[in-house]
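Intended use. Records like the one below are meant for learning the mapping from a protein sequence to its folded structure. Do not use them to infer anything beyond what is encoded.
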Amino acid sequence: MLADRCQVAIKTEASAGTAEVLAAANVVMATDRPTWDASPAITERAILSASPSKRGHVMGSRMAKISFKMYQRGTTGAPTDPANLPDFVMPLRACGVTCTVSGAGPNEVTTSVPASLGTLSTATIAVYRDGKQYKIHGACGNVKKTYTVGAPVALEFEFTGIYNTPTDVALLVPTYPAVVEPPFLGAALAVLGFATPKIQSMSFDLGNKIAMRPYPNDAAGAGFLSAIITGRDPSGSIDVEEELVSVKDWYAAWIAGTLGSIATGVFPSTGSNYNQISDTYPNIQIRKAGQADREGVVTAPLDFVARANSDAGNDEFSWLQT
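Structure written out for the chain above:
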């Protein structure tokens, strides 16, 4: 079996915890090698006897995790739901993110914002590796987003769900998106009102807290009904270049608990319609300001929390594919 002959497929479940049948249309264009890690509950029998010999263990509830990485890209032509969505939408929805299409041609926009915990969905996900399928269902996930200057925006997903016995299944034959993901260039990045921050990278972690729902009546014997997102702690970091106090005082903003936004602006500014990105974190607060250097240039790396931007909440960020 060849490690690079692999793919990832994901489909939203109509009923939480009920596995869906995956097909070629459910394949997402992942990069790097995905991982599948099973972690069943194991109870040691610990039998007492005259001999120190072990007496084995009992296999219990079965869960597993699937992780994969993909680049953020738009659509060829106007996005529509569900016929022509960016391929990152399906994984995001299972991470507690609401993705909607709005606007009229040629200005349709796909907007992704945090979802209410009362409207969450689960997914069936599988890694196909050179003729073998490794699947979980009833899964929820977390996503980390990384912006690196000159590189595509990366989305790293980790899903937790119910273990399925690996089976022999041929690789699917999807039609992959033709659009090429744009690099993080030609932006209009602003950090806490400072319009000329010099950075190499910025990262954001949705910080979902995921629990498994035990269910002894599970007919398959896995012992779970589904995974569920019970909360989130969104946070991030950005490696801004240090500035004179008269230009931008990052430490004063940290100590004062200053609130403000991080906004990328639309990038790349010369990009094509439906394949540009504009992300905003409207109400961040610096948790830690430090000191480092980037190839001999002094930096002031900032750790931040993404706060609610209204009394209603569920608005810590807004990601636009435009």
